[in-house]
């Protein structure tokens, strides 16, 4: 197992198989000097703040759905899958990969651990309720309990332009909210593509 520390939260390691960490390492590096290194993994003009809206990036080793969501299972779950009407409890991280890979959410607990009986601090929503952005809803569909899924979210599947504070998930810290708001609320040519890591921790049947 390999780990990378979340930016601004060195005590919060992400633990996934090393072969799955390569793209995330490139996405989440905030250093300008290392952006060129990140481009070795894929041609990512959006990461360099260029060509917003002119091209859509496709990343290797990701499955792209009809909606345009790109996803990769970092760990396959071995439990049941949620159905419409069920409430799910998830852990998640979020990055503005279209704008210098800035982190806007990083939980303080390592993914993949045992959280039975301790889900109050995690994000909950009811499947099919439209409480979350379309990409989050689509990502949960088909996930099995215990799985970890990484998704690349184009703007049209992310937070709504007219009221981006209405849909979840929302950052749990002021700095994270500010980082996300800067990207979502910016009227300039900023790529609003986001990356999420989602772990399905618990399913509460309807």
UniProtKB/TrEMBL annotation:
It holds the Pfam family FKBP_C. Residues 85-204 form the PPIase FKBP-type domain. SUPFAM superfamilies: FKBP-like (SSF54534). InterPro entries: FKBP19-like, PPIase_dom_sf, PPIase_FKBP_dom. GO terms for cellular component: chloroplast; thylakoid. GO terms for molecular function: peptidyl-prolyl cis-trans isomerase activity. It catalyses: [protein]-peptidylproline (omega=180) = [protein]-peptidylproline (omega=0). It comes from the Eukaryota. Keywords: Isomerase, Rotamase. Its EC number is 5.2.1.8. This is peptidylprolyl isomerase.
